[in-house]
Amino acid sequence: METIKKTQLFNASCVALVVTALTFATRGSFVEAWATEFNLTHTQVGWIVGTAFWGFTLAMVFGGPLVDIIGLGRIIAIAFFCHVAGIILTIFSAGFWSLFISTLFIGVANGSVEAACNPLITSMYTTDKTRRLNRFHAWFPTGIVIGGLIVFLFSNIGLNDWRWAMGIMLLPTLVYGYMFLNKQFPETERVVSGFSYNDMLKACVSPLFLFMAFCMLLTAATELGTNQWIAALLSNVSDNPILLLVWISGIMALARQFGGTFVHNVKSTVILLLSSILAFFGLIMMGYTSGVMVFVSAGVFALGIAFFWPTMLGFVSENIRESGALGLAIMGGIGFLGGAIAQPVLGAIFDAQTIAAVPAGQTIELLKSAAAGTQEAAIFAKSQLAGGAMTLRFVAIVPALLIVFFSFLHFRKRKTA
C-alpha cells in the first residue's frame, strides 16, 4: 500500500489555496470594471462577489460531513472541476446572471479546497496544528499578492481586459490537479482518534463551538469583506489601488509564514484579542488618513487580520477535538458566510456614503457619466473617496465587538484552566 506523502500533500494543498486566493484577489480588482462594462450598481456587484462566499459556504456545509464518507480525494476532485468550470464560465460571462453563476462555481471550488485541506493538514500534523494551519493559510494572502501583481502588470502592459487575469488562473489550477493526482490520502483525525459521528455532531452544537462560530462570522467579515472591497473603497487614493491589497496581503503572508514561534508560544486567545485591537485601529486609521499614511494604516490592519482565520481553526481543532472535519468545515463555512453577508452590505454602504458626499446641486447619475478630466469627474472621485473612508469607519464596528468577545473568551479560559 502506498504511504502517505505528507510533504507532497501539504505542498499541493498550498497550490490549491493559491488558486482560491487568486480568484479572491482578481475579483476585488474587477469590481469597478464589471460595474462599468455591464452597467451594474455596486450593490449588484456586491451580490455577484458575495456569491463566491455563498458557494464556499455551500461546499463547506455539504463537503464537511462528506469528508469522512467519500474521502478527502473526491472532495479535492470536486474543487478541481469547479475551479476549471468557474474560470472558463467567468471569462465568457455577458452580464449579471452569467457572472453570478460562474462565481458560484468558483465559490464551491474554493469551499471544497478548504473542506478537504484543513482536515487533511490537522490529520497529518496532529501535534503541530495551529502552526501548520498558519503556514498553510499563509498561501492565501500570498496568492492575493500574486493576483494583485498580475492585475497591476497586465494593466501596465495594456492588457486591461479583466478576462486575461481570469485566464491566467487556469495554470495553477492544472498544477494542483496534477500534484494531487493518484495520491494516497490519510484518514481524518476523528476516525483515527475513535470519536463517533454522534460525538462529532454533539461537539458542533456545544456552547463553546457555537460561540466560536459566531466569532468566526465576525472575524471573516472583517478580513474578507474589507479586502474584497479595499481596491474600490480607496480607488482614488492611488493610481493603482490594487497595490493596497497587495501590501495588506504581503504583510499577512509574512506574518503567517514566519510567525510560527509567536503562534506556538502565545495563547490563542491572546492572539485573537490582539488581532481584534489591531484590526479596529487599522480600519479607523484608514478611514481618516491619506497618502503614504494609508499604507501605514493598512499595515496595522494587515497585522490585525493576519492570524484570525488559522488561529480560529486551530483553537477549535485543539480545544474541541471531537468536532473533527465537520467542525473545521462549519467554521470555514461560517467564515465565508460572514464574507458573503459583508459583500452587498459594504456595497450598499459605499453607494449610500458616496451619494451622501455629493455636493448640493449635483446628482450621482450625472457625476458617474462625466467624461474623464472634467470638473464633474473630479467631484465624483472626491465623493467616492469620502464614501470609501466612511465605509471603513462603519466596518470598524465589527472588530470593536470582537475585542469584547475575545476578552470574555480569554478570561473565561484562564478561569477554567
Tell me what the structure shows.
This protein has a single domain (6-416), classed as MFS general substrate transporter like domains (Growth Hormone, Chain: A, Up-down Bundle), CATH 1.20.1250. The chain is 82% helix and 0% strand. It has 20 helices and no strands. Helix 2 (42-70) packs antiparallel against helix 3, helix 11 (207-233) runs antiparallel to helix 16 (308-319) and helix 11 (207-233) runs antiparallel to helix 20 (397-416). It is globular.
List the helices and strands and how they pair.
Elements: H1 6-37, H2 42-70, H3 72-91, H4 96-124, H5 129-137, H6 139-156, H7 162-167, H8 170-180, H9 189-193, H10 197-203, H11 207-233, H12 242-258, H13 260-265, H14 268-288, H15 292-305, H16 308-319, H17 324-357, H18 364-368, H19 375-395, H20 397-416
Keywords:
single chain, 417 residues, mainly alpha, Growth Hormone, Chain: A, 20 helices
Structure summary:
The protein has 417 residues and is mainly α. The protein has 20 helices and no strands.
